[in-house]
Design a protein that fits this description.
Elements (H helix, E strand, L loop, with lengths): L12 E8 L6 H13 L6 E9 L5 H11 L3 E6 L4 H11 L5 E4 L9 H13 L3 E5 L6 E3 L3 H17 L12 E4 H4 L11 H11 L4 E5 L1 E3 L1 H5 L9 H15 L1 H31 L7 H11 L1 H45 L7 H5 L6 H15 L1 H26 L26 H8 L4 H18 L1
Parallel strand pairs: 1-2, 1-4, 2-3, 5-8, 6-9
Antiparallel strand pairs: 4-7, 5-7
């Protein structure tokens, strides 16, 4: 959307979401940094900030409320207990009514300047989601602890391998969303897995997702040693492993199944070699005796091969079932999303788009509104039904009158009326329907009915 000075076109509205848990040491300073940066974007964007105090046990909520009283464009939402990141973001998403939604870490490990880059990219590419990634070309990290950095890289590689699109960073919370698209996603995750859940469901809908280079800077985080991190390392690792399973569950069954199948084939081939050796020996025993002798020589070969074969069959079967179930889920998700989009309120589905329709569409739109009013006004609907019955009665009288009359002589060039040709129905005033819907057409209905009765008497 281009902003033309002096025009009536509204600037795009941007909502910046900051989830906070025990951030009293940095909340005021970082809120000021975000607001100061957003002020520099006022020429192109209208903006507000939503802070979610996720059940902090320190003064985070109190300090955020004090800041919001001085800055009217800052709104603070409170959880009385800690529900974790997913629930905090879902709470904030429901409070957003703008065009774009930006999620940002409260510790500002990604500087506020990333907001402008994200907004520029989503408007340029018309994507639904833009992710700030430190792991693509042009991105970088600073002062991130080695163990945490390597764990993050490996988790994102695993998620990228299982996801349909090869994204370098799926765990980053620093993103910008198309707000209307985001509102169509039925999000259920309450923990840190919400970041990957959004990507997964967006991919199911074939949404465009892009990444921009970003700078992940932990310099201030390492200086604030007394500040506890809200990110629980072990829980995050388990959440990301489960997210990888959700992205492509068949891999977790097919790959082990193939490995078990190869192991079983190797061991059973070795067992078959031993049985064959006994069959061609000088004693020349029968097949069952040869198998018995081979089992006596190496019983573990038969045991391991048999167990591996059974295990491979089970795993490969589960892989096939997981693919089938995933297809079913995708179909149901598409259906549910479509129904949800049609069930959304009119003000959330683009009422402005309806107002921008061409003028030639206006009569049909008025007719639809009139129909809606009839549905909401039982009295007007009853009047309309009575009038319809009166029209039907008059039409029957006209037909009876016509049957008793002789056919008129046709003039030169006139064609006789064909048998079975339908009479044209009397025209109904469209404005009359609208008036009936408003409950104010009673007099016009009586006049129309009186006129039809006069024509009936004249026909008789």
């Amino acid at each position: 959307m281009l902003v033309v000075p002096g025009s009536q076109v509204d600037r795009p509205r941007v909502t910046v979401i900051l989830p906070a848990y025990n951030e009293a040491a940095i909340i005021e300073r970082n809120l000021r940094r975000v607001c100061d940066y957003m002020t520099t974007l006022e020429a192109g964007y209208d903006w507000d900030v939503v802070v979610v105090n996720d059940g902090s046990t320190d003064r985070t909520g109190e300090l955020a409320d004090a800041f919001a009283r001085a800055e009217p464009r800052v709104q603070v939402l409170h959880h009385f207990s800690n529900f974790n990141l997913g629930q905090a973001l879902r709470y904030a998403f429901n409070a957003c009514r703008g065009d774009y939604v930006v999620t940002l870490d409260t510790d500002l490990s990604y500087a506020p300047e990333h907001i402008g880059l994200l907004l520029e990219e989503i408007r340029r590419t018309r994507a639904k989601i833009v992710i700030a990634s430190p792991y693509i070309r042009g991105g970088r990290t600073t002062s991130v602890p080695f163990v945490r950095l390597q764990a993050s890289r490996q988790a994102n590689r695993l998620l990228s391998f299982t996801a349909k699109e090869r994204l370098a960073t799926l765990t980053s919370m620093v993103r910008v969303y198309d707000r209307r698209f985001l509102s169509t996603l039925n999000l259920t995750e309450t923990g840190i897995g919400i970041n990957t859940e959004i990507i997964y469901k967006a991919q199911l809908l074939h949404a465009k997702i892009v990444e921009i280079p970003a700078h992940l800077d932990w310099t201030e985080q390492r200086l604030l040693a007394e500040r506890s991190s809200s990110l629980r390392f072990t829980r995050s690792a388990l959440a990301y492993a489960f997210s990888a399973f959700v992205f492509r569950p068949s891999l977790f069954f097919v790959i082990p199944g193939v490995v078990a199948l190869l192991l079983s084939l190797y061991t059973l081939a070795w067992a078959a070699y031993r049985v064959g050796g006994h069959l061609v020996s000088e004693q020349g025993p029968n097949f069952s005796t040869a198998v018995s002798l081979a089992f006596g020589d190496a019983p573990h070969t038969f045991v391991v091969g048999g167990i591996a074969l059974l295990l491979s069959v089970q795993l490969l079967s589960l892989g096939i079932l997981s693919v089938q179930n995933k297809r079913y889920f995708e179909e149901v998700f598409h259906l549910g999303t479509t129904l949800y989009r049609h069930a959304r309120p009119a003000d959330d589905v683009g009422l402005r788009d309806v107002q921008r329709q061409p003028a030639q569409d206006q009569p049909r739109r008025d007719h639809v509104v009139a129909g809606d009013r009839l549905a909401q006004d039982p009295a007007g609907q009853n009047q309309h039904e009575d009038l319809r019955q009166a029209h039907a009665h008059v039409d029957d009288a006209d037909v009876e009158a016509g049957q008793g009359q002789e056919e008129p002589e046709l003039g030169h060039g006139e064609q006789p009326e064909r048998d079975g040709e339908q009479r044209s129905a009397p025209a109904v005033d469209v404005g009359l329907v609208g008036d009936l819907a408003d409950g104010g057409a009673h007099e016009r209905g009586e006049q129309a009915e009186h006129g039809h009765q006069e024509r009936t008497r004249a026909a008789r």
